[in-house]
Amino acid sequence: MQIPPRVLTVAGSDSGGGAGIQADLKTMLALGTHGMSVLTAVTAQNSRGVQGAWPLPAEAVRAQFRSVVDDIGVQAVKTGMLASAELVETVAELLTGVGAPVVVDPVGVSKHGDPLLAASALDALRLKLLPLATVATPNLDETAWLTGVHVTSEADLRRAADAVLAFGPRWVLIKGGHLPGDAVDLLTDGTSEHLLRAPRHDNRHTHGTGCTLASAIACGLAKGLSVPDAVGAAKKYVTGAIAAGFPLGEGIGPVDHGWALR
């Protein structure tokens, strides 16, 4: 019996099902991998925003991680919402020596502008987690928060990427989705560059885009793809998911994680 590639997400729960752990596991299933989870926080969240967030104790995060990794093993790890400096440090400690590719989505703020990471965790994210990343996937707001570099045009993407690479990830994907025009992302390891361009879809229902993309990259890496190939495949998947995003509730609906299955 063939065992699918195993991918672990370390992230928070989105009770509305569009982002976080829920989006990660849906993506992993859609892309033919076995998804596993370490829950870092519980949020009360819907299409209108985040109404509350409660981080889990570090000991609970550590126990979940050891339970999965020591018995089942992992072929790629994706991190998302980590909530606090203590949890960032805990996860960084756990990832040291795990021996699998790590995709770090440095989640700081929700789609609606709600904070998902304490300001005090910034140094831990920069100095302890980013150096462990095979790929870091900040959007433009997260890039500015991490580095102070504000991207206002496609020409600024390389400068922003260099600033993130200075913290030690092997590759960085600067997501330019907030720029006008086509959705343009820059992937680079400081030597080679890959510009990924996709048409912008006129669809406001984009909740979960960042979680979905990072998880899709982790799936590609778990299957043995190179970083550029994994990111390219993930970009295609999330572009389709955005195009198929649907209204849910009164606010911003989710991307459609199952679009490729139909």
Domains (count): 1
H-E order = EHEEHEHEHEHHEEEHH
Name the poorly predicted regions: none
What is the topology, as strand order, of the major beta sheet?
Answer: 3-2-1-4-5-6-7-8-9
Round the Cα radius of gyration to an integer and report it. 17 Å
What is the CATH-assigned architecture?
Answer: 3-Layer(aba) Sandwich
> What is the helix tally?
8
GO molecular function: ATP binding; hydroxymethylpyrimidine kinase activity; phosphomethylpyrimidine kinase activity
Function: Catalyzes the phosphorylation of hydroxymethylpyrimidine phosphate (HMP-P) to HMP-PP, and of HMP to HMP-P.
Pathway: Cofactor biosynthesis; thiamine diphosphate biosynthesis; 4-amino-2-methyl-5-diphosphomethylpyrimidine from 5-amino-1-(5-phospho-D-ribosyl)imidazole: step 3/3
Protein name: Bifunctional hydroxymethylpyrimidine kinase/phosphomethylpyrimidine kinase
